[in-house]
Amino acid sequence: MIAQNMIAQRIAVLGAGAWGTALANAIARAGREVTLWARDAASAKAIAGRRESPRLRGLRIDERVAVAALPDGTPNQDTILIAVPAQELRAAAASLAAIEAPGIPVVTCAKGIERTTRRFMTEIIAECLPGAVPAILSGPSFAADVARGLPTAVTLAAGDEATAQMLARSLGSATFRPYHSTDVRGVEIGGAAKNVLAIAAGIVTGRKLGSSAVAALTTRGFAELMRFGRAYGAQTETLTGLSGLGDLILTCSSPRSRNFSLGLALGEGRSLGEARAAVHLAEGAFTASVLLDMARERGVEMPIAAAVAAVLDGSLDIDAAIGALLARPLRAEGGDR
Prior knowledge:
Order of helices and strands: EHEHEEHEHEHEHEHHHHHHHHH
Largest sheet: 8 strands, mixed
Radius of gyration: 20 Å
Structural class: alpha/beta
Number of helices: 15
């Protein structure tokens, strides 16, 4: 039971990549005792020596952040954040099974749906760590901005209000503002779906179809996100908030987004292999097909997501995908299709 006004003072971040490093810096600025867990002792030693993550070059890790390998015994932490890619979350959570203390919050910071099982991120936490309290952090945020201490607002959701509020208080600072929520599913859906739609926005930009086309695609893409979210029980206010519309706007408008950059490379004429080699880990490439399958199961029409999935699996070339979208029948705005 989370007591009123409780704050987690000792926090660990599992994953010393760009996002994990950025979050560790943010937590240090919040005045908490934070440990960044690297994948092994050699990596931890190298990162601690350089005070820099290899995935976030040029940005120094705050001196208040301890860097260590995952401990063998029970950790002395009140909360654990897992900052690894969505498709690696299960392995990361499983690595905590022997040490995770029952009842402590475990916060996933990944945006996606597990491709092989169609599980959402907190479902994986619950499966791998049945004694933990699953939560999720998501929203419009670039790792470099958060690492530098630039103003950023995100959503932090847990199944009960007290836990969500406690986590927001524990991680929040003057420049990193988590807004708490109990709509876990809505936060998960916003983060997963926007990645797929950002690939589409990048393709349109790469094809030089103009800013009007990008605006139209982003707006209609958001309608798809809303339909999918409602079908899976998300709350409208969550989907129109930071972790839905806010994150969609950010990732559909900046080449700093990996998903947008993947689409941009494809739109400029690179092959899928070349585009993926140029862009490290675009989560939407793994999510597109499973998102579409899940949409079809609930009778949700997602033509933009379907076009992205078809381009990524090679069943449709980009010009044909764009032509198919433009050839769709005209209809009233605001409908379910």
